[in-house]
Structure formats: C-alpha cells, structure tokens
Amino acid sequence: MATRPAGRRWRRAAVYAGLSLWAAVSSFPFLWMLLSSFMTRGETLRRALWPERVQWGNYAEAWREASFGLYFRNSLVIAAVQVGGTLLFSLLAAYPLARLRFRGRELVFGCVLATLMIPESVTMVPNFLTVTWLHRATPIAWLNSWPALTVPFMVSAFSIFLLRQFMRSQPSELWDAARIDGAGHLRFLFQIQLPLCRAPLLTVGMFSFIGSWNALAWPLLVTNTPDWRPISVGLQQFVSEAGAEVHLQTAGACIATVPVLVAYFLLQREFTEGISMAGLKG
Amino acid sequence: MRQSTSESLTAWLFLAPALCVLGAFGLFPIGYALFVSLHDWRIRRGALLGLRHYRRALGEPEALLWFVLGCLLIVVVARLRGSRLLHRLSLGRCQRRAALALLLGLGLWLALVPGLRGLCATGDPRLYNGLRVTALYALATIPVQLSLSMLLAYLLLMSLRAKGFFRVVLFLPYVTPVIASAVVFRSIFSPDPASLANRLWTWCGFGQLRWLYESRSVVALLLRAAGMQAWPVWIDTFFPSLALTSIVVYNIWVYIGYDTVILLAGLSAIPRHYYEAAQIDGASAWQSFRHITLPLVSPTLFFLSMVAVIGTFRAFNHIYIMRTAGARDSVDVLSVTIFDVLFENHNAGYAAALAFVLFAVILALTALQNRVVGKRVFYGD
After folding, report:
1. Fewer CB within 10 A of the end CB, N or C, for chain A?
2. Residue B31, domain member (yes or no)
3. Angstrom distance (rounded) from CA A271 to CA A277
4. Is the domain of B186 the same as that of B100?
C-alpha cells in the first residue's frame, strides 16, 4: 500500500490539469478579445498576440463614431424595463399559483407551462404583426421604441414556474402567522415572501437580463433607426458592414460584455445555485 | 376548506398582468400564426390561400401521405412488439419476429423512399435544407457536449480546492453576450492565413482551411487531404460542413459550463456510501461509474439532452452572426431560414407556415425522445 499516496497525488494532479486546461480554453477567447481591443488596426491585421502600446482610443472611437455609446444606453434601458417587469409580474403571478385556492388554478398553470413548448419562430411572425397593429392603432409608439422591445418579454413561463416551485416549498404557517397579525395577501407577498425569494428572484432576473441583452432577431424586426437599437443589433450590423475593423469590433464586444459580467460576478453564487435547482427539478 | 370569493378575486387580480401579456404574446400568436399562414400576407393581409403555403413548403400531398403512413406503421410496430395482441395469433416466436421486421422494413421504406424522397424533390429546398442542417447540428453537438461536460463535472466533483473558482470560469462563456463571443469566434475561424484557427491548424502540421467560409463537409476535406479527387455527393449532404463544424465548436464552448454546473449538482446528490459499498465489493472505477453514477444522473442527462435538442432547433443568434456568404446553405438552420423569409422577403404568411412545420418537428422529436429515451431513465426506486 506504499504506492497509494503517490497514486492519489497523480490522480489529483490529473484532475487539476484537466480543469485548468478547460478553464484556459473557456477564458482564452475573452483574453483575445480584450487584447485585440487594445491593438492598432495594423496589429490586428498582422494578428499580433500582444498590443505594443495600449490603444485606449479604440474605445473612444467605438463609443462615439460607431455609436456604441448610444446602443449601450439603449440596451441598459431595455434590460432594466424588461427585468423590472418580469420580476414584478412573475412574482404577482407565481404567488396565487403557489398559495391561493381558486377555481381554474391548474388550468392556468398548465397554460403557462404550455407556452414553454412554443418556439420563438412560431410567435415571432404574429407578434411582429400584433406590434405593428398596436403601433398603428394605439397612441403609443411601439415600433422603434421601448414598448415593442420589452413588453412581449415581460412575462416568461419559466420565471413563473421557478418562483411558484420555490414558494410551494415553504411552510404554509408563514401565511397563517401573517394573517393573525392582520396582513393581507399583497402585504404578505411583498414584506414576507419577497425577501425569502431572493435566490430564485435573482436567478429569474439574471436570465431575463441575459435574454434581453442577447436578443437579436426581434430587435432587428422592430427597429429600423439607431434611436432605440440595442447593442446586439448595433454590433451585428457593424460586423457585417465593416469587415476588417477587428480592433473596433472587439472594443464594441468588450463594451457589450461588461454589464453582464459585472452582474454575473455580483450574483454568481445565487445564479449557479438557482440554475442547479431548476435543472434538478427538471 | 371552502374557497372564499375574496381569495379567488385576489388570485385573478394578481394573475391579471401576467396573463394579459402571456395571452397576447404567448398563446394568442399560435392561433394568429395559423390564420396568417393560410393567407397571402406580405405587409398586409392578402387573399386566402388555404393550405397552399404548406403545399409549397412540404411538397406533394401524395408524398406526404406516404411519409405519414410509413411513420404510423413504424409506431404501430413499436407498439405491437410488447402487446398481448400478437401473442393471441398462433404464430411461433420466429414468425412473429419476422412479421414485425417485415412490417418495420415496409414502414421505413414507405417513409423514406416514396415519402421523404418525394417530399424533398417537390417541396421547398430551403425547408428541407434547413431541417437537414438542424439535424446535423444537433447530432454533431449534443453527444460531444454532454460527454465532455460529464467528464468536467466528474473532475470538479473530485477536486477539493478551488471548486468555486473553476465553476465561475467554466460558466463564463454561458453568461457572455452571444453577440460578443460570436464576433470573437467569427474572427478566430476566419479564412485569413493568420487567423487563430489557421495558425493552430498549421502549427499542428496541416494546410490552411477556410473555416466559416467552407461549405464542403469535413469528411470531404479529409478525403481530399488523403489525395482523393472525387467523392459521391452524399458525403457533402450527410456530414456537417466545416463552417457548421466551427459553429458546433462554438456551441460546445458556450454550453459546456451550463451542462457541467447542472451535472455537478446531480453528481453531488449521489450519496457517498454507495461508492464505499461498491469499493468494498471490489468494483472497479469504471464499474462504479457505469452502475452507480450513470443510472443516478440519468434524469439530469435526459433533461440536458432535451434542453439541448430544443436549443439547437431554436438556435439563431450565433448562427446569424457567424454565417458567411460562401457557406450559407450549409449552416442555415431552419429558424434562420424562417427569419430570412420574414425579414428579407417580407413574406409573413409563408414564414408562419414554415414556423408551424418547425413546431411540428420539435413536438414529434420531443415525444419520440420522451418515449424512447425517457423509458431508460432511472428515477429512483
């Protein structure tokens, strides 16, 4: 048994080697993106590995001349409205589905889950027509503005499902105690339930944020001026028009990445746990 | 407990905003899409066309009939296999098997030869090409992605220190905006001789490749590298192109972290004493993996494979960004084609019809996956 510790050490070394290899693979593109965004145009064309001098000017140029500043602001506003709406509406909808008794509860929940099955390709066409109609028929400007970009995504079946499952797992004595103290449902939901739902709410919010930040097909359809164009569309158009400006492309990509990474690093514990939970529930 | 009216009033009030949005943009669209797909609908509603869009997309109704009949026959055979009905017939075991095999062969033949071949010949090539690419994409991605993330999750489980650090780093690609990482990969896989992919490839001792611009299949490129000049057409049809393979690499890079985190949760839930018991009984590492780990994480694996199949059918953003003029046909999955029909041809009616075909395929696949794979999943005693 003298070889055992040595064998274990080897095995541990192999484990860390494998993990480090993949960590390198998964972070390498970031590094490359960051480095290229600091290069001159000539350096990116030569595919240099390291910028000779850090070109902060790329960011200024991308921000102003390629209007990534405007797109960035648009994306932030769109994401804020969409995440806020999603959190509020999903919380309000999940609560009765988890705790209240009323006729048709299972039916409503079934309908909510059914929308999970429908691919976006199916809803995209009619939703585009609906939004165009709303634009014409109501005084609110839907196209080329935030309502068309956010309202259709304010409710997701997934977030309602996740929050409902979480609320169900909590003891019903909570509500009994609150009722004895004279709280109504609304007050109970926002003062007692809400703080308890921190982890699933953060997960849902993060998903909604990523979804809004990544959206490409829908914003392409409903915006045709830069005024409300989100950064995904801005970057896509920049890439397809100006093929060779890698230093500006990567600067734009870095700008687009920052908010998501910041949010992720702040919330990563809750987020990964929320995801594992959602996955295990199936 | 009685249902109080005030309680149900509260419930409906709370549900109202969510149901309005979900109804208007989640459920209503299905009916509306069906309505749209039956019309000539460009910017505004035109003439009622009935099923003509579906005829144009799918092909001859006759071929469709053969295809459906063949599929039904296959389903019937699959059902008959275990049923009592067959045992009542006074046939020997061999005869029963032969009869079933014959029926199965007939079903396959009907579905493929007069069915699928006729459909492909008479239907919209964009639809069938989109489905072909989607299928290749899913088949090339999912097995590699799941086995790699299984390996990584196992490594993470065994690592004692820095688990949190690795989890964060592995997860990075999943949270990065698709648009940013796809732009980066577009540059990595560019045909430029100095691009990263080409550098790595030539460093390994191979010739330069055109990556995202290459519509030839990987196997065809291998054959050419082996010195062959000509090869049958089906090699380019039934294997993914190099452009699609590059996109597959991107897809694996993105989703591996997500799969790993979920699998890690599944693996950590397995009680340690199972392994200890197996070790006492003298089981090898492979045996305990095969007989303890695999069955116990099979629900998680099944969930992930379902998510991945649906994901590949919905994939849009990264393909839209990474597709190039030279290799469009070999990477355009159906959802990209549908978007083109709506966005570039402004043909809402036809786009809706194509979307319904896609929906039907997804439903059929999910049902199939549930029946065939779902049965083998171990949900505990």
Report:
1. N
2. no
3. 10
4. no
The amino acid at residue B141 is: T
Q: Are residues B109 and B132 in the same domain?
A: no
SS3 A49: coil
Q: Both B104 and B249 in a single domain?
A: no
**What domains does chain A contain, in order, with CATH numbers?**
68-281 (1.10.3720.10)
pLDDT higher than threshold 60 for residue B381: no
First to last CA, chain B: 34
- Cβ distance of B173 and A117 shorter than 8 Å: no
B80/B162 same-domain check: no
Distance CA B327, CA B211 (A): 10
Residue B30 lies in a domain: no
Judged by CB atoms closer than 8 Å, whether chains meet at B175 and A46 is answered as no
Q: For B302-327, write each residue's pLDDT tens digit.
A: 888 888 888 888 889 999 999 888 88
Question: Which stretch of A182-186, A248-252, B30-34, B251-255 has the lowest confidence by average pLDDT?
Answer: A182-186
| Residue range(s) defining the domain that contains residue B336 | 125-376
- Residue of chain B with shortest Cα separation from A263: B175
Q: Give the distance, in angstroms, between the CA of residue B240 and the centroid of all CA atoms in the same chain.
A: 14
What is the chain A residue with the closest CA to B268? A276
For A48, A117, B179, B243, B321, the CA distances from B209, given in Å and listed in that order, are 20, 39, 24, 10, 20
**Chain A residue closest to B156 (CA)?**
A19
Which residue, among B83, B82, B77, has the nearest Cα to B99 in the 3D structure? B77
pLDDT digits (tens, 9 = 90+) for A145-173: 889 999 999 988 889 998 998 888 888 88
B188: left (phi over 0), alpha (psi -120 to 50) or beta: alpha
pTM for this predicted structure:
0.88
Instruction: State whether residue B367 sits within 8 Å of chain A by CB.
Output: no
- Is residue A216 classed as helix, strand or coil in its secondary structure? coil
Q: Given the cut 0.90, state whether the ipTM is greater than it.
A: no
The verdict on residue B141 lying in a domain is yes
Residue A47 forms contact with B (CB below 8 Å): yes
